[in-house]
Amino acid sequence: MGLSSFFKNLFGSAKESATDLANQAESTFEQAKEAAAPYIEKAEAFTEETIAKAKEASEPILESAAEYAHQAKDIVSEYVEKATDSISDVIDSVKEKASDISTDTKTIASETVVDASETAATVEDKIIDETKEKE
């Protein structure tokens, strides 16, 4: 039985030591928490002040950015209108030139057909004349 009492004493004292350490750790944690509370409050106050200052400092910049954005929009809109007008002019010019070319092509084709018809008629007359002469 000496061995069992040895183990009981060994594990019993280890259990007590672990409980004491846990209690000490909890106490130390509470002390650290209490000591850190003022610093946490200061950090929160500093953060809030910094955010407020950043908002205040950024307001004029945001207003300027909005103003420049509106100016850029107006300028771009003006150029879009000019570009649209220019593109319309180019399209109209292309249509007009295509129409002129189409008309010229029709005229040339008609003249070619007439010339070919006249040439065919002349050749036909020569053939008829030559045929009559041979008879």
TrEMBL record:
It comes from the Bacteria. SUPFAM superfamilies: Apolipoprotein A-I. This is YtxH domain-containing protein. It comes from Flavobacterium saccharophilum. The lineage of its organism: Bacteria, Pseudomonadati, Bacteroidota, Flavobacteriia, Flavobacteriales.
